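Structural biology now treats backbone shape like a language. To illustrate, our science desk offers a sequence and the tokens encoding its fold:
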Amino acid sequence: MRTVLLYSILLFAGLGLSQTLPLILVESYEGFFFLVRIFTMIGLAFIMIHVGFEFHIDKNRLRDYGKDYLVAFTAASFPWIFVTAYFVFAMMPIEFWSSFSAWKEILLAGRFAAPTSAGVLFSMLAAAGLGATWVFKKARVLAIFDDLDTVLLMIPLKILMVGIAWQLGFSIIVMAAYIFIAYIYLHRITIPTSWGWVLFYAIVIVGVSELLYMGSKIIDPSVPIHIEVLLPAFVVGCLARPKGIAKDAKPTDVERALHKNLDKYEEKRVVTIVSACFMILVGLSMPSLFQSSDIQHNIPKPVSLHAAAPGSSVDDPVVHGGSEEGRYVTSISAGMPNMSWPMIAFHVFMVTILSNLGKMYPFFCYRKEADWRQRLSVAIGMWPRGEVGAGILVLSLSYGIGGPIVTVAMLSLSLNLALTGVFILIIKKLIAGTPGLLAQNAG
């Protein structure tokens, strides 16, 4: 509970700094923001590598995992659909309802509601003494699958944002190769898995993304190649196999060895520190909430916040011969009129309710495996949002999306994160006194 509270406080602290630093660091803010986005992506890569460590499947039961993936896909899609529809019909001016540009921006921004925070969920359930239950086993599989679904869906969303280009086709091929490699060599590559090495892998992943982006920009500055750090980082975690494990060891032995390393006090402490730093960096990446649009346009802003700079050149008017003054007006949502704080609070409440209602689909599944209390517990276990959802907001900002939409999304994510402890207490109360049901199909 203290960890979740800390994350929420740091996210709000970063938000506060994001409102004051642009006014203080007027001349050097763009350089500062460059460092913010690089460190943000390093933190995201570090977290996703650990998500990959948690990913284990039995290849003899692919049909069962296919069902789990379908459930996770649905549980990730409903919140996205609900929140996107709310952003458009409840928050966007009516004249934008038929605008394709508005819809594609909101489709990307609304995706923050889809992924469950796997890292926070796993640690909180384990801390509550629920690590040996069917609920934990099933929630682990579903949370990782819906994070993976979020990563994969970024490709078509990017096509919506920048159009069809050979660079995006190249990105699709690379991502397909990542998935193939992760499946074939799942936890078969012996590499160090301590936190120092994981941090090194994260830095390398972000560095390669930056180099690939800068190199492709030389070839074609209008549509550079940008591989998101989410998937390569996840794949590195999927490939990892701890040292000292025999090549013919059972998958359960590999899983046990990985968890033995991850459960060390120092490892847990570093993961908490990195996640905390990531939260404050995400807060720092948020747009100004208080200044009018005229004032905001006079504050230097980096064109991109993402380590791979998606859309920075595509959406940059200067690249296409436009004016410098038009560089910062890149989004319909960013140009929306400001809202009062009571109205923003109302929208935050509604978006939070809708995003969590969308996660209830697992409750209607697995009737042969568990009773209604455990199925409800799994659905509630999918409610916590965190690092991955925040990463989606960072990616949205990189396309120039801003204004009240992103403000409400960020505050909703913060509220959901702050309530994670409450969600876990509800789960614990629901399954108190029921059998653990370590179902064979739980994964």
Remarks:
- The first helix runs from residue 2 to 24.
- Residues 291-330, 436-443 have pLDDT under 50 and may be disordered.
